[in-house]
Design brief:
Blueprint: H1 3-26, H2 43-55, E1 66-67, H3 69-79, H4 87-94, E2 103-104, H5 105-114, H6 120-133, H7 138-152, H8 162-172, H9 187-199, H10 205-220, H11 235-251
Helix pairs in contact: 1-10, 2-5, 4-7, 7-8, 7-10, 8-9, 9-11
Length: about 260
């Protein structure tokens, strides 16, 4: 392998190391979905969940194993979930929804069995706990964040349209979800401003995942003392760091070398 190939491989390894570092850091945390009661799930529970699933299907004859958009909206309403709240993403991850606003039978049954919730009242209670835990359990939030990329993609596409990605980042990174802001830096606002003015491209999975790592580090140390311009970050985040430094100079905020 030539020198360029070695450098490319090193960059990939470094980037994977950044993601792995944060995976290992949170791997010991308790997860809302690590429910030992799944071992006690019964055929009766599966039968109850299948009947509940059937109730919300849009087209039982054409798509017997799918809850479409209309059925999903009614179902989420019965759970007491607003369509514009981040909890929708968490439920979609728990039930392994194939796309936003759609549920399939297998994911629905397996997901709720794992949470030991086979009736609407039990599922409402599970959703309330999920909503409360989403901001406190960083491992849960990370899993929901990563799954959102697959929800946000249009069928057959490998990347997410920028406008869609921005809307999902707004949903994920501001209250009542977690906040991507620190004392001196409105990170989310500046990130969106930067993307809309200087990026204007689609968002691939690498950019999506590494933005989460950047979010973690920037909220832990907003001075960006951890930043290495020769590191394995995507070019868009290298450019965003320069943008942040420009903004800090204009606003008279902290000066970071």
């Amino acid at each position: 392998m030539d020198a360029q190939g070695n450098a490319s491989r090193q960059s990939i390894d470094e980037r994977l190391s950044l993601v792995e570092e944060y995976a290992n850091k949170t791997s010991g945390e308790n997860s809302f979905f690590q429910n030992p009661s799944v071992a006690n799930a019964t055929p009766a529970m599966a039968n109850t969940l299948n009947k509940l699933f059937n109730k919300y299907r849009d087209s039982p004859e054409e798509s017997p194993d799918t809850i479409g958009v209309e059925g999903a909206m009614k179902y989420l309403g019965d759970l007491g979930v607003n369509l514009d709240e981040v909890t929708v993403l968490a439920i979609s991850e728990a039930l392994q929804a194939p796309t936003m606003g759609e549920f399939n039978r297998e994911g629905f049954v397996d997901g709720w069995r794992s949470l030991d919730a086979d009736t609407i009242p039990n599922q409402q209670a599970a959703v309330s706990q999920l909503r409360a835990n989403l901001t406190a359990d960083r491992e849960l939030f990370k899993r929901v964040y990563k799954y959102t990329f697959f929800l946000a993609r249009l069928p057959g596409q490998k990347a997410v349209a920028l406008d869609a990605a921005i809307e999902y980042w707004r949903l994920l990174f501001q209250p009542p979800s977690v906040s991507w802001n620190t004392d001196e830096t409105p990170w989310l606002d500046w990130f969106i401003e930067f993307l809309q003015s200087r990026w204007k491209k689609t968002v691939n999975r690498d950019m999506w995942d590494m933005t989460y790592v950047f979010f973690q580090r920037s909220t832990e140390d907003e001075s960006m003392s951890w930043w290495d311009e020769n590191g394995a970050w995507p070019g868009v985040l290298d450019d965003f760091v320069l943008y942040v430094r420009e903004k800090r100079g204009q606003d008279g905020r902290m000066d970071v070398e």
